[in-house]
Records
---
Amino acid sequence: MDGWFTKEIVAGMAGVLLLLFLVLFIWNIVLSVKFGRLKKQFRRLTQGTSRENLEQILEKLFDRMDEVSHSQQESNDLVEQMQAALRHHKGRMGFVRYAAFQNEGSDLSFSLALVDDSNSGVVLTSIYGRDESRVYAKPIDKGVSVYQMSEEEKQALVLAAKNGRSDS
């Protein structure tokens, strides 16, 4: 043993140092690429801002975000108002055809129920006969009429209530 360091130890340390150098060199390249991207993004952010500084730009962006948020809230309020108004429209319909008289073979008589979300509206009934036809309208309030309803009218009302539900 000539000294503290033998040729094997020196060669091993040289290998470790070479490996460490390669790792640091690759890390340096990765950091350089990331820094280049960051620099490019910063230039894009500050592009055309000869007079304004970054704080003023951010302040304008926050103002725009507040405007967009306010506009979105107004839109949400309008949608809620429209949904509330639609609940009162007579959008549910039930239709039943039938033969009103046994001696007549056609099913030209019908009952048509038109109601809103609270089952309020009207039931129209047309009774077809060979010599004449009659049409009746009965108001409906929360699924109930002050007038006596036929079985066909009740069926039409049940169909109308089912047609508007989202779970049907």
---
Amino acid sequence: MQEKLLAIINSIKKNKFEELLSEITPEQKLREDLNFDSFDLAELTVKIEEEFGVDIFEHGLVNSVNEIFAKL
């Protein structure tokens, strides 16, 4: 699951021409640490729902990698 999430995050970062990550940690914040804006979060939601069948933002905001893991 962590590798799939890393691949999804890196696909978004690649589209923004940003440096790809070699790993993710539960403590990382989506906006502050990963530099995601609202458009990136929308793309993240769609890609996670396609891959895992879960809408991570269905019951409110998700702010960290750990919160994504909890929803999956």
---
Amino acid sequence: MKFNDIPWKKIGLFAGGVLFGTAGIRVLSSKDAKKCYTHATAAVLRAKENVMETVTTVRENCDDILSDAKEINEQRAAEEEAAVIADQCEEIADTSEE
């Protein structure tokens, strides 16, 4: 293997990546980075709490809507049943008059 046959570009890229990765790890594990991660995590937890409050409110509203809808359907069914009974009473009254 000749000196010119060695893929210096690839070796240089690999060495640069290792150097950049090592420096990156040191930056990411520094005290300042840890403080930044802590603040970001706290912000995410606050956002989660806000979202969960909204979800609870929406669930409560959905429960109210569902109970109101059931009540409306029960009223309609009662009205329809009363109308059927009234029709039957009219039919009986008509047949008894004859």
